[in-house]
Design a protein that fits this description.
MetI-like fold; 2 domains; 12 helices
Length: 279
């Protein structure tokens, strides 16, 4: 009996077998041209010359620098990195919230009859394209632009994060609001409530948890982005890391990497606590 069971065809033992094989092969067919186009060759890491260079590079990171003066500077720049991320998120919210309210179809009074009027539809589409423009330009590019406009320093980082994240937040906020239950909101609008009243009493209460969760997640991402933006002169821990790398001070770079990992870990703990609090 056991022999006859094991000798069954694969499709009899597992009805989903053919589907899994098909999609696995399809994924490989789609992925292979991408790997060829990007010249993805992971085996080059095993080349003896490359291994020797890699080990020498990693060896420069040890021992990390833990002098009092250096750690004080790192603490100050870490705080500046968090400040850049937080200020950038605040600017993004200032821009994203009005864009969301104006671009969300559910909050359109003219759409209550079934089809939105021409002018509100045109305004809504225009605002959606504005959000596409804002988020399609990476914050690194915005930072390069603002470094030339306002000079080196945290201001460029705040503006870069604010513009890019405004587009991201506005898009996701609109999708969250439009995917939820809309009956209460439409009832308020039909009974003469304003757009803001319909938002605060209809949409916001049932979507507050998801909106807050995504906002906190984006704040985490902004902390990481603020460190990267420092490499183009936008201030913070990234700019100090770039200076140390240019001076071949691997020990200083190692210390800042450890501090940045701790910073991201603390941000993750804080965001998890906030998510638990709003549930």
């Amino acid at each position: 009996m056991a022999h006859s069971h094991t000798s069954q065809a694969p499709e009899l033992r597992d009805p989903a077998w053919t589907g899994r094989v098909f999609w696995t092969l399809a994924g490989l067919v789609i992925l292979w041209p991408a790997l060829v186009a990007t010249e993805f060759k992971p085996w080059i890491f095993l080349d003896p010359d490359n291994l020797r260079v890699t080990l020498r590079f990693l060896g420069d990171f040890f021992p990390p620098v833990f002098t009092g003066e250096f750690l004080l500077m790192v603490a100050q720049e870490s705080w500046r990195t968090v400040a850049i991320a937080t200020a950038g998120m605040a600017l993004a919210l200032v821009l994203a919230i009005p864009l969301t309210l104006l671009a969300t179809r559910i909050l359109s009074v003219s759409a209550l009859t079934g089809r939105m009027a021409a002018l509100p539809f045109a305004v809504r589409q225009l605002l959606r394209w504005v959000m596409i423009l804002l988020r399609s330009i990476p914050e690194l590019i915005w930072a390069l632009v603002f470094v030339r406009v306002v000079g080196l320093g945290p201001t460029a980082g705040v503006l870069a994060i604010g513009l890019t994240y405004a587009g991201m937040l506005g898009k996701v906020y609109s999708e969250i609001l439009e995917s939820g239950e809309t009956h209460a909101t439409q009832t308020l609008l039909r009974n003469g409530a304003s757009r803001l009243q319909a938002f605060f009493y209809g949409l916001l209460p049932q979507n507050a948890s998801e909106l807050t969760s995504y906002t906190v997640y984006r704040w985490e991402c902004a902390i990481r982005s603020s460190a990267v933006l420092g490499f183009v002169g936008a201030g913070g821990l990234g700019q100090q890391m770039d200076n140390s790398m240019k001076m071949f001070n691997g020990g200083e770079v190692a210390t800042m990497l450890l501090v940045f990992m701790l910073l991201v870990g603390l941000a993750d703990l804080l965001s998890s606590a906030l998510r638990r609090a709003i549930r």
